[in-house]
Amino acid sequence: MKDLASHIMDIVQNSIRACAGEIEVYVAESQEDNRLTIRIRDNGCGMSAETVARVRDPFFTSRTVRKVGLGIPLLQQNAERTGGRLDIVSAPGEGTTLTATFEYDHLDRPPLGDMAETMSLLIGANPGIRFVYRHETDRGAYSLDTQEVCEMLEGVPIDYPEIIAGIREMIRENLRAL
Amino acid sequence: MEKIKSLADLKKIKDNVQAKIELREKSEHPESRIQIKVAMATCGIAAGSKATMAYFLDHLEENGIDAVVTQTGCMGYCYAEPTVEITKPGKEPIVFGHVNCAKAEEIIQKYLKNDELVEGIIPANYQSI
User: B58–A161: do the CB atoms touch at under 8 Å?
Assistant: First the structure.
């Protein structure tokens, strides 16, 4: 993965497959604390303790089209390489929370990447899911809740290409201001 | 073009889109739309499927193509990522492999606009149910 936004795109696919109706993506960049935190929380079907213990194994997957599951192991490897870590809290019926931390100024930390593109693609491709995106830096914070966007749209599909492009630009402009 | 910074700015786009949708609903049936599914598993994302999906979203409108662009999981063609499955109304789905932005443009110009097949089609070994 060339950037952390791609990891986020990948990990959120797990939440989607877990039939989540709400997915929260939280990114905190703190140069003061020298820490970058990514947290993805969903209200999907959750995992048993046995499954949680196995998801870090690259040769474990719940899919049938292939025999490897690299998303979580790759993110963990990237986090640990920078002195960070990856934690997963999950229980059947209670959803899953995945948290990855990175040393902010570590030479091996991948760049964050284009979060505006990642979030707009996720929102556009999954119009039935409520996404809550919160991005914090030492200077401020930006939040987007697709429930509010859908209310504003008054029935116009959130996955319409021009709307998705608008959401992407809105996120990009607000992140630029942080 | 004005910058979009808030929901109020986004609402202006919504008003334009709403007018287009009303026009389309009067002239066409929703099932006549082309379905474009971009594979978005670890393999696809690592190979650049985000850029591919964004390219389709950004360039369909200007080419006058009415399509639904969505994402799907790994189809098992990890060697050929990014992969894209396209279903034209009344036709069998076709899976294209190695779809970078240049290939996406070729697909738009040749297959979507003129029904002309392009290189990189992955032979079907499954049936959608």
Answer: yes
